[in-house]
Structures are given as structure tokens and as C-alpha cells.
DNA sequence: GATCGAACTTTCCAGAGTGGCAAGTATGTG
DNA sequence: CACATACTTGCCACTCTGGAAAGTTCGATC
């Protein structure tokens, strides 16, 4: 490889972590809508990344509804930054 | 998706086309060494991209050896540029 | 406090993608 | 013509990804 992180290189994963990189936490449903994926798909990606230590998730109540909040852990941010740096090294060769 | 091209988003594919983007043609063996993949893997990626119209390949003789030269077609360059642009849109949100 | 419904979670499944190994093929060289 | 080189192809195994649907959980409501 070229320093690309296989855990976050897939398109959906990359969009997930880049979306989360801008905020401290986001609601599951909001992310789901932003990525335009099904519940099950997002749930599976999230649990895979939680298990990898890249995300944390926390259950709460918001506006009378149960919601799950997810966000990047420090390790997740670090992995994203390294992945993005590696990606830039590859694509900066273009042009 | 977010404009990412599934034909060139896989790491090996991306490295292949970015490597070729800098030159007009490259030897199969040189590319194989640059990407550090096996003969069969490179051969299969190349034929997939040739079939997609992204690469051209041509057989020739060089220094007493048969060599295959591969390079991006205009369509391949266009696809790469669009893919890179889409990738930048995604990762520029980071930081 | 039993029931309902929303919000995920998990299971099951199908299909595509990727790579390794080994056998096959083609062709310049001696 | 025999041989070696340089890929090419077939076969296989495994992982990844996503969809559908059933399952689970727990706050809200009555």
C-alpha cells in the first residue's frame, strides 16, 4: 500500500469520517441522510469503526426521541489525517 | 456516490492511473515494480481498464526483450481528473 | 405499567472485487 | 527448432459491501 488506511478507504467510510471530521458529534439519523445509505449499512460501518477505535457512539434523548450520537475519537482523527495525507501524496502527482 | 469512479477508486487502480498520468506510456514491468504487485494482478487491472477504454496497451520490442507498453487514453485521463476532483471535494472538508 | 412506535441492530443472503498460484500462450533469441 | 521471457488466463478462496427483513430496546403515551 501507500499508507492508505483500508478501514476508511471505501467511499462510504471516507464520506462518513470526513463528514464527522467537521464536528464533535453528529446524530445517527443526520449522518444517514447525509450519506444517503440505509440504516443497516450505516449501523454496520459505525460498529466496525467503533470496534477499530475510530469512532465513539453514545445514546441519548433529544426532542423526545432516542438518538445515537457518533463522533471521531482522537485515534479516528489521526487515522483520517494520515489517510488524507497519503491520498494527497498519490493524487498530487496528477497535474 | 460522490462522483468517485468505481473503476479507479481501489488503491491499486488509483496508483496505477496516477502513475501513468505523469507519462505518455510506461513499460508493464516498470509499472509492476512501481506498484509492487504480481504479474497476474497488474495484468488483470490493465485489461479491465483497457476494456473500459481508460488504458491502451501495445506490444513492442525493447532492448532485445518483448515489452508491453501501457498508457492512459484521453478517456482515462478525463476519468482520472474527475475522480481526483471528486476526491478533493471530499477530503478538502478535512481541516 | 402495559403498549406502541421510533430508532437503531443484527441476521441472512447475494454479488462484486481482489489477489495468489499455477498453467497456458506467444514470440524474440540463439 | 528449442528455450526463455513476458505476460495472460483460469481457478479458487476470501473479503467487502449492501439490501431486506426480523429483532431489540427504550422513551412516550394512555
UniProtKB/TrEMBL annotation, chains A, B:
Segments forming domain Winged helix DNA-binding: 13-91
SUPFAM superfamilies in UniProt: Winged helix' DNA-binding domain
Listed name of the protein: MarR family transcriptional regulator
Gene3D superfamilies named among the record's database cross-references: Winged helix-like DNA-binding domain superfamily/Winged helix DNA-binding domain
